[in-house]
Amino acid sequence: MRSLAVFTKNMDDLDLGVAELKEKLKAFKLGRNSLGVVFAHAETDFEELGEKLREEFNFPIMGCSAMSLFSEQQGYAKEGISLHVFTADDCGFAAGMTAELTEDNYKAEIKRTFNKLKNDLGGWRPKVIITYAVKNPKIPGDEFVNVLDDASGGIPVFGGFCSDNFVFSECSVMLNSQQSRSGMVMVLIGGDTKPVLKGEFSVETVADFDETVTEARGNVVYKLGSKTMVEALQAAGFDLDVKNLVMQFVGSPFLVSYTTPEGDEIQVIRNLDSIDMETGAGVFLGNVPKGAHIQLAMFSRKDVAHSVAKAIQSAIVDVANEHKYEYTSAIITSCVSRLMTFTNDDMVDETKGYSAVVPRNIRFSGMYSYGEFCPIISKATGNVHNCFHNTTFCFIVL
Prior knowledge:
The protein has helices spanning 14-25, 46-56, 106-120, 141-152, 229-235, 245-248, 301-321, 336-339, 349-357, and strands at 2-8, 33-41, 61-66, 69-71, 75-77, 81-88, 91-97, 126-133, 157-161, 173-175, 178-180, 184-191, 196-200, 204-217, 220-224, 227-228, 254-259, 265-270, 272-276, 281-284, 293-298, 329-335, 363-369, 372-377, 384-389, 393-397. It is α+β, with helices and mostly antiparallel strands. The protein has 2 domains: 2-200 and 302-397, no CATH class; 204-298, no CATH class. Strand 19 (272-276) and strand 20 form a beta hairpin. Helix 3 (106-120) packs across helix 4 (141-152) and helix 7 packs parallel to helix 9.
C-alpha cells in the first residue's frame, strides 16, 4: 500500500480547492484499488466537496468534519481540507455509511453496514475497520465501538467522533457526495496489510480524588463509595454551578481502571459530559463500570508531548519487527481536549511532535476528535480490546 496526503486552504471556493488537490496528486500513480480519506473544517459543504472530488477521482472518498486537522504537507491547520489517498494492487477497500443512527436502530444499522461492506470486499478478509461517527448524546461512545467489535468478531477498530468548534451541531461525516449529521462512515480494508494501532495517554492523578464506583449503569455513575458523584465532586472543590461544565473538566478528565470478566486489566480516560443535581449522578462520554477504580487526572502540554512520543515510538518498534512488510501510511486521531492545553500561538506544538518522530517515508494525516476509537492491549494477558477513549492520542500505521 502507498499513500499521499495533500492539503488546500480553499474550503470556501471548492472549485479552486479541488483543483489544487488534484494538481498536488497528479504525479501520484494509482494502483488497482484506491480510497480517499477527507478531514475538513466543519463549515465545509461536504456534499459539494464530495461531488467535485468524485468528478476528478474514480474511487470512494470518505471523511468527516474536524475542529482542527493536520497533514504531512501542512502540519497543523485550523481551517482547510486534507485529502489522503491510499492505493494498492494487493489490498481492497470497501466504504459505506449508515443511515441516521438513533437509540432504537444504531445496533442493527451499524451491523447491517458492516455486513454489507464485508461482502463488498469480494473475497478479501477484512484486517481493520477505519470509521468516523457523529457523537449522539443519547448513545454512549463505547456502543459505536462495541457493536462493530461484536459484528466483526474483534477486527481492530480505529477512528473517532468527528468534531466542530464546540458547537456540537455542525459535525458531519461524508461518503462521496453524501453528508450525514447523525451517521457513521466506515471502510473495511482487506488484503496484504498488517496494521499497527497504538493509543496512549499521559496524565497525573490527583491523590485526594481516588474512589471506587459502587453504582453505575452504562456511562452514568450514581455513587462513588457512599457518596453520590455530585457529592464527591463537591468534596473535591469543584464548582458545579458553572454555565459550561464540560469545559471545566476538559483539562481534568478521570482515569478509570477496571478488570474484565476474563481478567484483563483495562485503563481508559473518561471525560465528564454532564451532571444531574437531582439524582447526584454524573454522565460520562464513555462507559464506567461498577467496581471500577476512578481517579481525577490532570494533564499538561508536557504530558501531551510525552504520549505522542510514546505511541509513535511504540508503533515504530512494531513496524520494525515486520521485516517483510513495508509501511508507508498513517492516520492520527487526537482528542480536542489535548488541543485545548495549547494557546492559539502554540497549537502547532503537538503536530511538531508528530513530524519529529514519524519516519520520513510515512505519509500521514489526522484530525482532532470528540472521542477516539482504538484497540488497547491488556497488560495482564496481552489480549486486544477495541475501546472508546477520551483525551487519548491514537495512531494507525498501514
